[in-house]
Amino acid sequence: MDGPARTRQQRNVEKVLFTAFVGTILVIAMVVAWEWPVRASIIVLLLGSIGIALTLVQLVSDLKSIAPDSVPSEALNLEAPAFESSSRWGTLEIWGWIIGFLVLIQLIGFLYAIPLFTFLYTKGYGGGWFLSLVLAACAWSLVYAIFGAVLHVPWPDPLISVFKIQ
Amino acid sequence: MLEAALDGLLGVLALHSLGLMCVGVLIGSLVGFLPGIGGPTTLAIMLPFVMTMQDPMAVIALLVGLDAVGNTASAFTSILISVPGSSGSQATILDGFAMAKRGEAARALSASFMASLIGGFIGPIVLLASLPFLRPLVLAFGSPEFFVLTIWGLAMVGVLSGNAPVKGLLAGIIGVLIATVGLDVKSGIERFAFGEPYLWEGISLILVALGLFGVPECIDLASRKTSIAERTELGSGFTEGIKDVFRHWWLTVRSSAVGVWVGFLPGLGSSVADWFAYAHAIQTEKNPGRFGQGDVRGVIAPEAANNSKEAGSYIPTLAFGIPGGTSTALILTAFVAVGIEPGPEMLTSKLNFTFAVIWTLVIANIVAVAACMAFVKPISKACFFPFYTIVPLILVFVIVGGFSAHFSNTDLLVLLVFSVLGFMMRRHGWPRAPLLLGVVLGAKMELYLWLSYTRFGLEWLWRPGVIILFVLVLASVLYPVWQQKRAVTSA
Q: B51 burial class (0-12, 13-18, 19+ CB within 10 angstroms)?
C-alpha cells in the first residue's frame, strides 16, 4: 500500500472509530435515561433511538469505505474539508501550544500567561522582537480592559504563589 | 406599526446603542478581512460580555451590527489575496481576484462594496414586507406546530449545512442531548450530571460555541501557516466599480433576492448564498463565458447575495425562534438572555425590537460600506498579516472568553473537551452547526413536546398544521439524500 493510500485507510479507520464513539454515547444516554420519569426522559429516549438507528446507517457507510476493495469516490465529495497541515508535526504542534497555554494559566495565572504565550508564539514563528512585544502588550491590555475592568472577571490564583496578584 | 418603527429607530439611534453598533461594525469588519476568524467565533467570544448588558436595544445594535457586515469586509481578502475572509465570499474570488491580477482591484472592491450596500438594503425591505404575512401564521401556531417547527429547523440545518445528511442529523441529536444536561426543574431529576455540581446548571452555550468553532478554526489557521501573500496593487477604476453596480442594477436586485431566500431557509447560510447568486448570474446573464476571467458581474452577484442573506435569516429567527445558522443561533441566545423572546411577541407587543433589527441591518451596512470605502488603502495593507500575529490573539480571547462562562477552571476543561470534539468533527466531515443549533433549540423542543403531549395526548399528531410540517420535515430530509444517491448513480 502506497503512502497516500495508507493515510486514507488510516483516516477511514479513525472515521469508523469516531462514529462508533458517537453511537456509544447515545447508547449510554439511553441506558441512563431509562430510569428517569417520563417528563425527564421523553426527549432523550425519542431522539436517542432515532440517533442509534442513524449511527448504524453511518457505521455501515464508514465500514464500506475501509473495505480493501473500496475505491475513493472522486465524483462526489460528501465530506466537509478536513485539516491538511503543512507542518512536520501536523496539528500536534498547535495542540501543544494550546495545552501549554492552559498549563501556563494554571501555573502563573491569566495575567502573566497571556503576554508570555503571545510573545513566545509570535517570536517562535518568525515575528520580530518589537512586533512580539507589541502584540503581547496588546493582548494583555485588551484582556485586562475588557474582562478585568469592564466584566470584573475574578482571576483565579495561580499554583505558583509568587505570581499571585495582590 | 409606525409607532413601533419609530421606537425601534430611536432605540438604535440612542447614543449608547449607536456607539455599540459602531463597535460591532468595527469588530465585524476586522473579522471579515482577517481570514481564519469567523463570525461565529467572534459572536461566541462576545457572549459573556453581551449577557451582562441590560439594554436590549444595545444588544441588538452590537450583535446585529457585527453580524451584518462581516461579508462586506471579507471581499478585501477574496479580491486581493484570493483567500475568502468569510465563507460568504468564496465565489467572489473567481472574478474578483482575476480583476485584481489585471490591475483592477480598486474597481472590484468598489463594485463589491456598492453591491453589498444594495443587498444590505433589499434584505431588510423583504424582512419588513414579510411582517404582515408572518403575524397571522405565527399566531395560528400552537405548541405541537412549534415542536415540529423546531424539528424542521434542526433537520434542515443537519441535512443541508454539510455534505453528509446522516452526520448532520446525528450532530443535531447530540446537541439536543447536551442541552438536557443539568437539573431538570420540572421533574427534579439530575440529568447526565453524574453528581457534579458544576453540571447542575447545564453546559454553557459559550463553551460549546467556542470549543466547536473558535479552537478548530484557530488550529486550521495555525496548521496552514498562511504566510504573507504576494502583494497586489489596488490599481484604478474605483468610481467605475460603483457605476458597474448601477449598470447591472437588475442583476444586483435579483442576486439580493436569491440571498434573502437562501437566508430564510434554515441550514443553507452564507457559504451557499454567494454560489447560488453566482450560478444564477451565469445562467441568466449575457456572455456567460466571461465569468471567471475577471467579469465585474461575478463580483456583484455574490456580494449582493451574501449581505441580503443576513436579513433573510432573521425571518425564521425572530418569528419562530428557529435560527437559520450558527451566527443567528448565538444571537438568539444573547437575545433570550437579555429578555428578547422570539416568537409571536416579536410581531405584536415587541415589534419595536424587530424594527430595531431591521434598522440596525440598514444603518450598519451604510457605516461598514462607508468605512471600507474611506479606508480602502490601510485595510488592504492589513490583509497581509501573517498567521502568527492572529493565532495567539484569537486563542487568548477564546480561552479567556471560555473562562468567563462560570469563572471556573472546570470551564477550561469543558472548553478543551468541546475543542477536541469540534476538531474531530471537522476532521471527519461532521457538520458542527447542527450540534450548536441542537443545544440552542433543545430546551424549547423538549418544552413544546411535553406541552403537546400533556394538552392533547397523541391527538396533536393529527393536527393539520403538524401534518403539513411533518411532510416538510420528511421532504427536507429525504430530498437531499435522494439527490445524492442520484448523483452517485449517474457518476
A: middle
What confidence tens digit (pLDDT) does each residue in B402-438 have? 888 888 889 999 999 999 999 999 888 888 878 888 8
Pick the closest to residue B324 from B179, B153, B84 (CA basis). B153
The vertex-B158 CA angle with B152 and B160, nearest 5°, equals 95
* B98-122 confidence digits (pLDDT tens): 888 778 888 888 899 999 989 888 8
How high is the pLDDT of residue B269?
Answer: 59
Q: Is the pLDDT of residue B230 over 60?
A: no
Reference B295, options B305, B281, B284; nearest CA is B281
Q: How many CB atoms lie within 10 A of CB B220?
A: 20
Q: CB–CB of A48 and B219 under 8 A?
A: no
B480 neighbourhood in chain A, CB within 8 Å? none
Residues of chain B with pLDDT > 70: what percent?
A: 90
Looking at residue B214, what DSSP letter applies? I
pLDDT in tens, B286-315: 887 787 788 889 899 988 888 888 888 888
Beta carbons of B393 and A118 less than 8 Å apart: yes
Long-range contacts of B410-417 (CB under 8 A, 24+ apart): B410/B198, B411/B204, B411/B207, B412/A102, B412/A105, B414/B203, B414/B204, B414/B207, B414/B211, B415/B207, B415/B210, B415/B211, B415/B215, B416/A98, B416/A102, B416/B211, B417/B211
A40/B186 touch (CB, cutoff 8 Å), yes or no: yes
Those of residues 93-122 in A touching chain B at CB distance below 8 A are 93-95, 97-98, 101-102, 105-106, 110, 114, 117-118, 121-122
Q: A-contacting residues of B 202-221, CB under 8 Å?
A: 215, 218-220
Question: What's the gap in Å between the CA of B393 and the closest CA on chain A?
Answer: 6
Chain A residues inside the 8 Å CB shell of B431:
80
Per DSSP, the three-state class of B203 is coil
Mean pLDDT, range B473-479, rounded to an integer: 79
Nearest alpha carbon to residue B464 among B213, B139, B140:
B140
Cβ(B99)–Cβ(B299) below 8 Å: yes
**What SS3 state is found at B236?**
coil
ipTM greater than 0.90: no
| Alpha-carbon distance B453 to nearest alpha carbon in chain A (angstroms) | 10
User: Which one-letter amino acid corresponds to residue A135?
Assistant: L
What is the C-alpha separation between B461 and B470, in angstroms, rounded? 9
Of B238, B212, B217, B228, the C-alpha closest to B103 is: B238
The answer to whether the Cα torsion of A46, B439, B163, A55 is positive or negative is negative
Distances (CA, A) of B403 to A92, A118, B277, B442: 23, 18, 41, 24
Residues B45, B214 contacting (CB under 8 angstroms): yes
CB B113 within 8 A of CB B72: yes
**pLDDT in the model for residue B416:** 94
